[in-house]
Amino acid sequence: MQGNFKQHNKKVIISGGGTGGHIFPAIAIANALKKREPDTDILFVGAMGKMEMEKVPAAGYPIEGLWISGLQRKLTLKNLSFPFKVLSSLRKAKKIIGNFKPDVVIGVGGYASGPTLRVATKKKIPAIIQEQNSFPGITNKLLAKNVSRICVAYDGMEKFFPASKIVITGNPVRQDVIDIEGKSDDAYKFFQLNKGKKTILVVGGSQGALSINKAIHKYLNLIIENKVQLIWQTGNYYFETAKEAAQGLDKKGIRTIQFIDRMDYAYAVADVIISRAGAIAISEICAVGKPAIFVPLPTAAEDHQKKNALALVEKKAALLIENNEVSNKLGKAVMDLINNEEKQSKLSTNLKKLAITNADERIVDEILKLTNN
Predict the structure, then answer these.
(1) Which letter, b or e, does each residue of 277-300 get, where b requires 16 or more Cβ atoms within 10 Å of its Cβ?
(2) To which H or E segment does residue 273 belong?
């Protein structure tokens, strides 16, 4: 009777999103899985109205949306609808999982991954948490006892999770973004910058960062006096203000950009980076090995951005300035660093030691171990 039995294509659900920091790694995992096993059926589950509903289809994958959002930290009317959203999401997740029948479910963080993983583990479907931060959120801590594997990016995560389930995989980063070898000539042309001058890159995440933007605005003259160039990604909200502040400063090498499409070029020319401390930004900066000053977002859940940055500071791989001190301290800190090549080289060496550039492959290994049993 050989030959009649056809093994079904693997089916995988990837759930989560909310910000680029969750969506891009999720897509990186999907791409790596497709590369390894092209017949795999992949379905994404996201939160309605969030960025993933647009970015995932653009990357070529189907997505279903749940009616879910976070619980506000303070008492608001939005919180009244929260229990209904949870029930609605659990119901819809049950329906999606029942229809799709996945072999494995991966949660990458973000609102939608909670209900999806909860339903999957109840149905005894193998599940994986991809925890990006050095300090996990409440949802992942609650889900941890029922999932099969927890893929992490930092040491010491057994403080929060069962040690037997932890695998250090690193965070998936976009390969095209960290591949900066031999690109600097094109990158200087792209930004119309001078090869002979030092360059600061400022990135505040896809939304921009108000405190960093205001500080850069304040220190523009200091940057110009030191004959340093600047690539300033402002995000949407500060773009007009920044553009006005930098008017006529093109010749001095000041570039204001709302959103950088070619991050590989930006990383290629950067001597020093000023950035928020989201998990993916940190993973990218480790991979490119460029010295950085991190200004953690104080409103991040469980203050995880500060904890992410401190994990690097402890290994002498980065500098940290608190959000409320950035206005007073950033100018001196960035100039001290840009003028100190020995310090840059030390930070760079230590960053590279922490880089894991094949995290997507490592996570796919874990997925396949669970589905090939």
Answers:
(1) bbbbbbbbbbbbbbbbbbbbbeeb
(2) strand 272-275
Beta strands in 125-253 (DSSP E): 127-131, 149-152, 166-168, 199-203, 229-233
pTM of the model: 0.86
- For 340, the domain range is 176-354
Looking at the fold, whether 184 and 169 belong to one and the same domain comes out as no
Domain-located, residue 343:
yes
Residue tagged 């600061």 (tokens): 200
Number of compact structural domains in the chain: 2
Residues 186 and 237 reside in one and the same domain: yes
Two structure tokens written together for 37: 């096993």
Q: Are 305 and 276 in contact (CB under 8 A)?
A: yes
Residue 72: the pLDDT is 54
- pLDDT, residue 85, reads 80
Answer yes or no: do 198 and 341 share one domain. Answer: yes
pLDDT tens figures, 9-66: 899 999 988 877 789 899 999 999 999 999 999 999 999 998 899 999 999 999 999 9
Whether 6 maps to a domain, the answer reads: no
Arithmetic mean of pLDDT over the chain: 91
